[in-house]
Amino acid sequence: MTEIASIHKVNRSTIMEWKYKLNSYGPEGLKES
């Protein structure tokens, strides 16, 4: 259960980073990473 929770936390932070890049750089910024 703990592993799933930690994976969920990582996925959530990755999504937040993805949204931030999308807002900052647009689709081109996402292709880069």
Write a brief caption for the model:
The chain contains two helices and no strands. It is mostly helical and 33 residues long. It has one domain.
Structure characterization notes:
The protein is elongated, with a radius of gyration of 12 Å. By secondary structure, the protein is mainly α. It is built from two helices and no strands. It has one domain.
Secondary structure elements and their pairing?
Blueprint: H1 2-25, H2 27-32
Counting DSSP E segments of at least 2 residues, the number of strands comes to: 0
Query: How large is the count of helical segments?
Result: 2
Through-space gap between termini: 30 Å
Which residue ranges are poorly predicted, with pLDDT under 50 across at least 5 consecutive positions?
A: none
Could you name the key traits of this structure?
sequence-specific DNA binding, Trp_repressor/repl_initiator, InsJ-like_HTH, 91% helix, 33 residues, 0% strand
